[in-house]
Amino acid sequence: MRMITGPRWLPVAAAVVAALMAASIAALLTTIIERKHEAKNPYVRLVDVREETVDAAAWGMNWPRQYDDYLRTVDVTRTRFGGSEALPAQRIERDPWLKRMFAGYAFSIDYRDRRGHAYMLSDQEMTRRVTERPQPGSCLHCHSSVIPTYRRLGHGDVFAGFEALGKMTYQDAHAEVVKTGSSNPVAGGNELRFEHADGVHPLGCVDCHDPGNMQLRVTRPGFIRGIQALAASAAPVPHIPSIERWRAGNREDAYDPNADATRQEMRSFVCGQCHVEYYCGPKATLFFPWKNGLKVEQIEAVYDAYTFDDGHRFYDWKHEETGAEVLKAQHPEFEMWSQGIHARAGVACADCHMPYKREGAAKISDHWVRSPVLNISRACETCHPVAEAELQARVDAIQDRTHALMERAAAAMTSMLDEIAAAKARGASDADLAPAFALQRKAQWRLDFVAAENSMGFHAPAEAARILAESIDFSRQAELAATRLAARS
Ligand code: HEC
Ligand code: HEC
Ligand code: HEC
Ligand code: HEC
Ligand code: HEC
């Protein structure tokens, strides 16, 4: 019996051993997978970050690598401009034609080069456009970690708070953001480098990441409404496939970027919350003019069809020299990128401006958001395996061409202004000049669209050239109209 019992137990013992081995192999595999996962996304949650945690330093305790890079958005300008007190160069001094184009508008008194994200709030607080001219609370939409304030003022409804803050003056709205800030949980024992004394912060981690699971998300009401209007339009958007998919569906719910967009799309959408054309004047709530599409003339058509509550047609300001009602363009990076080959090929803002980098076993996204030409090997060579000098030369060629064409458009704009002013001096009435004014509006809008866009043509070279060519044509047509008027009178 024993002899038999032994061998009868043997398979069982073997099975137990095998099971144990399988379990330990599984455990080993799990560890390997976990390590790999850790390497991809390594963090320990030391601090509980929430929707109210606008202070990036608190997040930095959990994700120190990303935080360290984020802090460098301060350093770069220190080296370039020699100290945190120094101000970036005035664009209106370097390019005097800008001053003429903006005659009569706040941009003619103070308009500077952009710099790193860390400065977005302090630069806004001290621009003479804010200190010397009345500005609306909506300015804070893109220059501060404002969402908790929207939520507080809207009693839980971010969009209601957005409307409320937009109706306030800049100063009153700023005070509300301070009020939210002073009750914020802040991280203990860390260097709070971006904290204003009053607890107000510029762009923080919470503006691009869900504090619960760290997924990318968009929070800005202006973007959410704008992209919904774009989705609901008929404009082709082959570079945003999730919109095309939504359009093919039943459309019962509005397009929701946070639910419908792909991860790759989110890598551009987070930037599109701010790097866009917008209207943010006193007469209407901030909006992104995308309901006809993202091209320069589609946006223009939105403004041309828009009337203020007082019944007047939309305009940003009356040109001081001519009296024409004209438009101001603002940094349309998202719109220009949308017209370029990279967007069409599925390349996102973050691919070039926040490229991956290796730190030990970890592969992380560079949170030092900056110009890719400072970082060509990681920003471009992953996709273009050619020498760095060659890539730099391609960027230079595009930017030099765009800049030369922009100077031609500026010269055309300047002679247009001269000619319209001369016609006025000779007694031409506003009614006589109406056709010239309409052309001036078109010419300036196009020139400004390219000038205010911050890549000097790189994001969409052919589109930038097309827009500038149209600007030159409209300026010369306006000039001709004014000259003919003089000849007739
Ligand atoms: C909350 C609004 C906001 C978001 C979101 C945002 N930016 Fe910015 N960005 C700004 C502002 C404002 C400035 C200018 C700051 C200044 O000049 O003080 C700026 C500046 C920049 C600069 C110039 C940096 C320098 O050193 O000169 C780059 C490049 C840039 N942003 C790219 C991006 C990219 C890429 C994304 C998305 C990953 C993004 N931004 C997301 C508002 C934003
Ligand atoms: C839709 C987002 C958005 C809104 C709203 C917004 N900005 Fe900005 N602002 C940006 C971005 C992006 C930049 C950086 C790119 C640039 O400088 O062209 C910037 C740059 C700036 C700068 C630095 C460069 C310069 O122009 O001198 C100042 C100052 C500024 N904004 C003030 C304001 C004021 C005042 C308002 C309200 C009238 C406002 N911003 C509203 C997104 C926005
Ligand atoms: C294929 C790469 C690429 C993509 C994609 C891309 N950019 Fe750029 N971007 C550039 C280059 C190159 C420049 C020119 C930099 C310079 O002149 O220093 C630039 C310039 C800028 C600048 C001015 C930076 C500075 O320091 O002068 C901003 C702001 C910006 N891009 C935002 C965006 C946003 C927002 C998106 C997405 C909607 C985007 N970019 C997509 C390559 C890219
Ligand atoms: C302007 C938007 C923006 C801000 C602000 C921002 N991030 Fe990110 N972050 C990104 C993008 C884009 C990615 C890439 C995500 C992807 O590809 O899914 C990313 C990825 C990450 C990841 C995943 C790992 C990696 O590096 O790819 C972590 C962790 C992270 N960010 C932490 C932070 C922290 C901490 C802060 C604040 C100090 C912060 N982020 C601020 C846009 C942002
Ligand atoms: C994620 C991949 C990716 C990255 C990163 C990337 N590119 Fe590209 N690039 C492409 C693709 C794809 C095309 C289109 C090729 C085609 O369809 O022929 C392209 C096209 C170009 C072109 C031709 C543009 C035109 O209008 O014909 C230039 C120039 C260029 N890239 C330069 C750069 C530079 C400079 C950088 C870094 C700032 C960069 N790229 C980053 C993928 C990338």
Tell me about this structure.
The protein has a two-stranded antiparallel ribbon with strand order 1-2. The protein has a two-stranded antiparallel ribbon with strand order 3-4. With 489 residues, it is mostly helical. The chain has helices at residues 2-40, 56-60, 64-81, 91-94, 96-101, 120-126, 128-131, 147-153, 158-166, 170-182, 221-232, 241-248, 257-260, 263-272, 296-305, 333-338, 341-344, 349-353, 376-379, 388-425, 430-452, 461-488; strands at residues 317-318, 325-326, 356-359, 362-365. A hairpin with a 6-residue loop joins strand 1 (317-318) and strand 2. Helix content is 54%, strand content 2%. The radius of gyration is 27 Å and the shape is globular. The chain folds into 2 domains: 56-375, Flavocytochrome C3, Chain A, domain 2 (Orthogonal Bundle); 388-488, Butyryl-CoA Dehydrogenase, subunit A, domain 3 (Up-down Bundle), CATH 1.20.140.10. Residues 76, 114-117, 119-120, 123, 142-143, 203, 207, 270-271, 273-275, 349-350, 353-354, 369-371 line the site of one heme C. One heme C binds at residues 341-342, 345, 347, 351-352, 372, 379-380, 382-384, 391, 394-395, 461.
